[in-house]
Amino acid sequence: MIKGFFLATSLATVLLAGGMPGSAALAENYDPEHPFVMNLVKRGVEFLKNAGAETRGNLGHDMIIALAIYKSDPEENGAHPVVARGIQQAVRVGQRMNGAATHWDHEDMYVIPVAAMLLASVSPDKYKDVLIAMRDALLASQRPNGGFGYMDEGPYKASGAADISQTQYIMLAFWTMNQAGIEVPPDSILRCIDCLARAQAGDGGWPYQWGINLPSTVQARSPTSSLTAAGFSAFLIAGDTLGVFRSKFAGAQEEEGIVPEVFVRIEPDQKKKKKMAVDKEKMTGVSKKAENWFSANPYSAKQQFHYYYVYSKERYESFLEVSKGKTQKSPAWYNDMVAELAQDQLADGSWTMNGDIIPKNVSTAFAILFLIRSTQKAIGELHDDLLKGGNTLPDDPNVTIKDGKIVGKTQSTTMDDALKVLESDDQNEMKASLVPDKIILPKNPKERKEYLARFARMMSSKDHNARRFAAKLLGRGDDLEFVPQLIYGLSDPDPVVPRNAEASLRLISRQLDTSFIPKEGKITEPQRISAILQWRKWYLTVRPDYVFID
To answer: Is there a contact between 173 and 112 (Cβ–Cβ < 8 Å)?
Structure first.
């Protein structure tokens, strides 16, 4: 995972060791791919791999550790024993789910969501039945007030209170399932949104437990940074699950030339889904109050559950970016926390806080999930599919875009010049570097169609680089005419072309959660055939007169 470590990074390490997290010397634009951040993650992951079980027998802890290791580098860590053990535990958790008749253990409201997140990250297709069982059990446990909470016998279950922290994890599990194609009833999400809006205190924070007329045996607790981060995350995640803010996010991507201009899901009339009545103005008001709470209550001295807060912060900040329709590669809050985490990382690579009830392994997992921007990666899956698509096209720092044209810093070139290179029969790994990821198609319909036609012809090129790029670019054209070429691309023997082609099909169809090609690993022949048949079936609903020629 770590390719190298530069002299500048070593200097930053010295500065951090000297305790200067806020100094001008540390005005570094950090992101998860920065070598300094990658080194912090590498050390933390190595600790988790080697430290052994220090989770006090809590399955949720074991699985969050497995998730952090896996997410840090799926290809490298997917088969690691700690990850394998977490997956096995997650499967066993799902196998004991039985809808409303499920026998609940005390920690299940944490354990089940984390198990679902892990399995959905590793393979939603392989573990689909288990994930559905988890979904159904969680849905059956929803409180009358719309929230979720402890289900074992005790005062919290008897009170019917919504546990804000647990509600956060369940909303994240539902969101993850939705992304994996396992639909969660929108009315359940809407009820949870209403619960969280009512649970928000007048100053914008969230308590630990919320319900009407809570008995004295149940501690509501005043809002804290950790609890408010949990409540805010749950609220934004629930809103995103219903797509409340996605049009704004898509609009921001459209400005970058990433998505088509008309971002409306294309579905046959008989299959159009019922829209949920969501009060966007009310949701914006709840969000603004929460932002004001954090402004009025800055997090300074570390509090109990510090690393739980760190992970929650990355989550709500990432979904907040979606709600505002913009993303930042290196936001100030991330840079500040990177500096702090660098100072606090122990010699063995771990993170912990004296007196915290959270085990060191779990705190370390939370820190890693923050550093790798795990939530941002999940949210940006569509964006990543289009810009990267898992491909290995080389980057060229000497190429940029100006006025819709590809311009080299050392020599000028037009889109036509770059296309001529891609269209040539020379199979050259470096030739694709002439074309940057954020290529912008012409606005003129006629010119746009001509370029798209050239890209479509490249789907039959002898050069896999040209086919990869064409499969990626055709999705940005928002033109149903070129869907057959993308469906043809699903049969390509190259491992990247089918994934790029399906990402484009998802975008054109607006079926963003639909996936038939596995996003990682080997693509089997049955998977290719299934994907081709499913996408043909969809295309015939919008172009019923089209005839596919096998």
So the answer is: yes
Residue 412 or residue 533, greater confidence? 533
Interval 407-437: pLDDT, tens? 343 333 455 655 665 655 555 544 444 444 4
Strand runs labelled E in 340-412: 399-402, 405-408
Residue-level pLDDT at 479: 84
The CA dihedral of 79, 81, 85, 88, to the nearest 10 degrees, is: 30
Q: Which domain holds residue 526?
A: 387-542
> If phi over 0 gives left and psi between -120 and 50 gives alpha, with beta otherwise, what is residue 492?
beta
Task: Grade residue 281 by pLDDT with cuts at 50, 70 and 90.
Answer: confident
Same domain membership, residue 437 and residue 297: no
Boundary (domain end) residue, out of 344, 379, 414: 379
* CATH number of the domain enclosing 305: 1.50.10.20
Q: Please give the model's pTM, rounded to 2 decimal places.
A: 0.65
Mean pLDDT across the stretch 435-459?
Answer: 75
- For residue 412, the tally of other CB atoms under 10 A from its CB is 11
Q: 375 and 396 in one domain?
A: no
Give the count of alpha carbons within 13 A of 301, CB side only.
Answer: 1
Phi, psi of 163 (to 5 degrees): -90, 115
409: domain CATH number is 1.25.10
* Total residues belonging to the chain: 550
255: in domain: no
3-class SS at 399?
strand
No. of helices (H) and no. of strands (E), the chain? 24, 4
Single residue among 379, 402, 420 that ends a domain in this structure: 379
* Residue 268 placed within a domain: no
In a domain, 215, yes or no: yes
Handedness of CA 83, 131, 121, 184 (dihedral sign): negative
Q: How far apart are CA 140 and CA 155, in angstroms?
A: 19
Q: H or E stretch including 162?
A: strand 162-163
Please indicate, yes or no, whether residues 374 and 288 belong to a single structural domain of this protein.
yes
